[in-house]
């Protein structure tokens, strides 16, 4: 942002390397972060590849939930490739710089992908709740619709488009810093520390904090609250289905309860993992923005790892609960 300040050059825990304020991390932390990044890339690539192949080979077009899972995995994968790999390069000590134009492009892409990542995860949770609340699907719909519904594709496209609109300020209000500038504002959806010398460049401190606050409320807090409500709704719906199971044993929706219960557990675990990681990152980054005290550096390290936990661990959770992924992992391990 515009109100950038010179760093304390004597601070032993802070080092300027042309990428803004760099928080020192131990070799163990660096190795752990690299492992998480690799897990995110490999795991989400496997999820997208295995489920994508099954949809292509499935003559009825695959299940809608699988398409949404692929969308979420692709957003995770793109975040890992476009940002987290660059953070790894920075961690190993390679100093990289970007021009103002590249910084504007990259900051916009980072905000866009992270935003899509949030709303794609919420979409999965909301879609599953809607599926559970179907009263009695017809026999023809038990194995999924014929082909991919246009409404589903339109919804996914809308997520990407609207979040691109949200990312436009990141294209405009960012620039490349230099060796004597440091970041004074961070967003969960873009940075937990400067990268490639790219920093925010809002006209004033007030406008920067206004954008950060608006982003926190609309883009970060609201999705988490909605995820919590949709998962509570899913659990309640399953509970009511279970109570009517004994009296309506032959109803199609009741026969699907065990499978839907397993799917609900997987999605619940995914959302809990997301809320824990994203919520930790929100608290840490906003503490830095509004109260940069002595513990700010520690919290930024926490935020850095919190941002990668969901991306790295979500494929593991899916592999436990998704039949095709579980079969693929078993066959991979058996060889």
UniProtKB/TrEMBL annotation:
Database matches in Pfam families: V1R
Q: Which Gene3D superfamilies match?
A: Rhodopsin 7-helix transmembrane proteins
- A GO molecular-function annotation: pheromone receptor activity
Membrane topology qualifier: Multi-pass membrane protein
The record, for InterPro entries, names: GPCR_Rhodpsn, GPCR_Rhodpsn_7TM, Vmron_rcpt_1
* G-protein coupled receptors family 1 profile domain: residues covered: 43-318
Could you tell me where this protein is found in the cell? Cell membrane
**PANTHER family attached to this UniProt entry:** C-X-C CHEMOKINE RECEPTOR TYPE 3 ISOFORM X1-RELATED (PTHR11394:SF137), TASTE RECEPTOR TYPE 2 (PTHR11394)
Sequence similarity: Belongs to the G-protein coupled receptor 1 family.
Name under which the protein is recorded: Vomeronasal type-1 receptor
- The organism is Lates calcarifer (Barramundi)
């Amino acid at each position: 942002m515009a109100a950038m300040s010179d760093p304390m050059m004597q601070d032993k825990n802070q080092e300027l390397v042309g990428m803004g304020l760099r928080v020192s991390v131990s070799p163990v932390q660096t190795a752990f972060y690299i492992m998480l990044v690799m897990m995110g890339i490999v795991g989400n690539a496997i999820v997208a590849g295995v489920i994508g192949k099954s949809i292509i080979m499935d003559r009825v077009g695959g299940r809608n939930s699988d398409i949404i899972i692929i969308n979420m995995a692709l957003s995770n994968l793109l975040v890992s490739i476009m940002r987290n790999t660059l953070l790894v390069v920075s961690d190993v000590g390679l100093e990289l710089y970007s021009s103002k134009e590249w910084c504007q492009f990259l900051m916009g892409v980072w905000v866009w992908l992270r935003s899509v990542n949030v709303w794609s995860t919420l979409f999965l949770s909301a879609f599953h709740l809607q599926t559970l609340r179907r009263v009695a699907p017809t026999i023809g719909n038990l194995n999924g619709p014929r082909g991919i519904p246009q409404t589903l594709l339109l919804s996914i496209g809308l997520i990407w488009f609207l979040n691109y609109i949200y990312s436009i300020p990141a294209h405009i209000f960012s620039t490349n810093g230099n060796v004597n500038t440091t970041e004074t504002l961070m967003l969960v959806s873009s940075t937990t520390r400067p990268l490639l010398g790219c920093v925010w460049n809002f006209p004033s401190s007030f406008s920067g904090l206004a954008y950060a606050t608006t982003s926190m409320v609309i883009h970060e807090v609201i999705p988490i609250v909605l995820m919590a409500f949709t998962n509570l709704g899913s659990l309640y719906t399953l509970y009511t289905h279970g109570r009517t199971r004994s009296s309506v044993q032959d109803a199609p929706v009741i026969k699907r309860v065990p499978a839907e219960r397993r799917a609900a557990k997987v999605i619940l675990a995914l959302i809990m993992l997301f809320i824990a990681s994203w919520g930790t990152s929100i608290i840490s980054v906003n503490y830095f923005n509004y109260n940069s005290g002595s513990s700010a550096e520690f919290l930024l390290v926490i935020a850095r790892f919190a941002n990668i936990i969901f991306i790295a661990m979500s494929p593991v959770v899916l592999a436990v609960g998704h039949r095709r992924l579980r079969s693929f992992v078993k066959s991979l391990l058996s060889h």
